Amino acid sequence: MLCVVFLPITFLVAGGSKLCPHQCSCHGASELVDCRSRGFTHIPHSIPHGTWLLDLSGNKLSELRSTSFSGIWVLRVLLLSQSNMQVVHSQALSSLTFLEKLDLAYNELCVLPPDFSQGLASLKDLKLSHNTLEHLETKSLEDLESLERLDLSHNHIRVIEVGAFRGLTILRHLNLAWNQLTVLQGGLLSMQQGLGVLLLGHNNISKIEVEALAPLQTLTILNLEANQLRSLKFKIFLNLKTPSTHLQMSENPWTCDCDLHRVFSKILRVRHLHVDDYAGASLGLMHSQLCIAETATVLIITGTVMVTVVAAMVMAERKRKKKRMNLENQ
């Protein structure tokens, strides 16, 4: 009798871990769980323990609680975009130690908890675009030591605390486009020596601090288009010691004077820097002649002043000699 009773119980326990949540579709022995656009208001409780991809995008979740993913230890991919997400509570993701991709794009997140990244040491790809984030604190992302791609575009970010990216030491791709940043600070990217792509277009950046780009030893693309840049310091780019970097800086309200023309002329002579376009600035050859004309004007004015001064000195000397001769004749 013991054998007869034991076998069905064993079967039920083993099979229970493979059950698919109601309204969801499961594939590959329940390793791929598709719960897209099912109207869920909370994370389903019956997700199989062996699930490695969970798609909950397009639902009405509103929040992630600290117990939302309890028991799903081997999850690798978690898709939560377009889920009306407003709040991620403390330690909501801390149990997902094997997670490699997290998509929270197109939600309504305005803040990340200080321990948002706790437990996410394996995460490689994080999408937080199209939210309403305004401020990135120092601790929110500090545990993302394996992160390679970070998309924070299309938010309302005004402030990024220096140190916010400190733990992201192998980051390769950083997208901060379409935010409200005003300054690119020195020290912000001090640990991103391996960063290859930095997208900062469509912000309000009017100032780049001299040391801001210095740590970026492998940067291949720097996009600064459609900001509020009026002038640049050549030293900013002189500090950029990379094999080859493409600079994209069109659609800025440049102050088109000779100082700026000289900066761009110097940049164009640096072998590893490639200005892809700055047509909006009209800083090309058409301005070189204006600067030559300005220089010529300055030289003419300077020459005229020098001639006038010399003539005055000569006249003064003649008057002095004439006066001396008159005194001697008396």
Q: What is the rounded distance between the termini?
A: 152 Å
Shape estimate: rod-shaped
Report the order of strands and helices.
HEEEEEEEEEEEEEEEEHEHEH
Q: C-alpha Rg, in Å?
A: 32 Å
Which parts are unreliable, with pLDDT below 50 for 5 consecutive residues or more? Answer: 1-17
Query: Which structural class should the secondary elements be placed in?
Result: alpha/beta
Total strands: the figure is: 18
Strand content: 15-25%
Largest sheet: 12 strands, mixed
Specify the number of helices: 4
Strand arrangement, largest sheet? 1-2-3-5-7-8-10-12-14-16-17-18
**Averaged pLDDT, please?**
86
Helix content: 10-25%
Protein described:
With 330 residues, the chain is α/β, with parallel strands linked by helices. It has helices at residues 2-16, 234-238, 258-269, 285-329, and strands at residues 25-27, 32-34, 53-55, 63-64, 77-79, 87-88, 101-103, 125-127, 135-136, 149-151, 159-160, 173-175, 183-184, 197-199, 207-208, 221-223, 245-248, 273-277. Helix 2 links the parallel strand 16 and strand 17. The termini are far apart. The relative contact order is 0.06.
Task: Map the helices and strands.
Layout: H1 2-16, E1 25-27, E2 32-34, E3 53-55, E4 63-64, E5 77-79, E6 87-88, E7 101-103, E8 125-127, E9 135-136, E10 149-151, E11 159-160, E12 173-175, E13 183-184, E14 197-199, E15 207-208, E16 221-223, H2 234-238, E17 245-248, H3 258-269, E18 273-277, H4 285-329
Parallel strand pairs: 2-3, 3-5, 4-6, 5-7, 7-8, 8-10, 9-11, 10-12, 12-14, 13-15, 14-16, 16-17, 17-18
Antiparallel strand pairs: 1-2
